[in-house]
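Changelog note: in this version the structure field was regenerated for every chain. One regenerated record is shown below for reference.
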Amino acid sequence: LVIGGSRGKAGAVALAGMATLRSGAGLVTVAVPRSIQAVVAGFEPSMMTLGLGDAESDELGQESIPELREILPAMTCLALGPGMGTSPGSVRLTHWLYHRVAQPMVVDADGLNALSTWPEGLRLAYGPRILTPHPGEFQRLTGEKCADDLNKRADQAATLCRLDPTGNTILVLKGHRTLVTDGRQVSFNPTGNPGMATGGSGDVLTGTIAGLLAQGMGPFESARLGVQVHGLAGDRAAKEVGEISLIASDLLRFLPVAFQQGTVTTR
């Protein structure tokens, strides 16, 4: 289940949904405001869509909780946040999902922005959580600027993971040599290029990790492999179109090739 989207940001949640399919999930449902359901459905016929809330609402809110309660038991994992918006209702919905849903969850973008309104809530994750911030989002979550040194950055990321007493929080701190840590082990990713710093790239990463989770892979392993395959797809795309012209939908085109050649390198 991919939850997100808002008026003007239908593409973000659609990219995440399509990446989830391309990463091996057999069935993907994208839950979005009813006002943009038709737009999101038009991106890819292989995705199912669920329209939530009032037909005039621009963003999802807590009024969608009863409808989500009905479908959540059938879902293997969740991806939350792409294009979701930051209205008070969206923030409340994010906290409800984060603190009440047991399935593994990838949280990105506006989902992270919602969590930053109550950082202490990171101690109350109800199940496995994979957070995928860039340095700015990490700073909003922690109040601490990311270190330039990779080893110090890894320590900062591990400290955030250890806020969760269950040990089920994974952090994917994006940037040059994106790192993945669960607070105990750390992996630095060698793939990717500057052309991937483009709108929608993070949404594709969210979906890639969620697709691996949906197949039963562990959270740390899903994050680690997802980051590497996402970077490989970006490297193949850059060879074809160049870093300057690379856009997020190019990553979707090259995910299949990336999965065929992907291997995992760790520190």
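Spot check on this record: The mean pLDDT is 96. The CA atoms of residues 15 and 204 lie 6 Å apart.
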